[in-house]
Request: fold
Amino acid sequence: MRPIVLCLAFLSAIPAAEAAPPTPMGKPLPLACSGPEADAGHRLVAQEKLSVGSHPKACFGHMTLYEGPNRQVIAAEPSPRCPGASAIQIYEQSRAGP
Reply:
């Protein structure tokens, strides 16, 4: 099974030498359902053939789970298994190589 590999150019604004603080617990994460961030998320999902995020109504955001230069991408879409709820997945860029 191949690990999920993500790379969003607009999310890599933090230089590798600087450590970003983790996203504070309890802080709401804004999700974009339209606009440039959502468009980039949809392109990424199609390119990497990811399961969550391919729905036309999917929304995308980002957060930092731990100190370091990486950000995690959050994808949320309507859940087919639970009407009225959302399926949520957190993706991160792999450092394992090509």
About this structure: Helices lie at 36-48. Residues 36-48 form the longest helix (13 residues). Residues 1-10+28-98 form one domain. Confidence is low (pLDDT under 50) at residues 1-17.
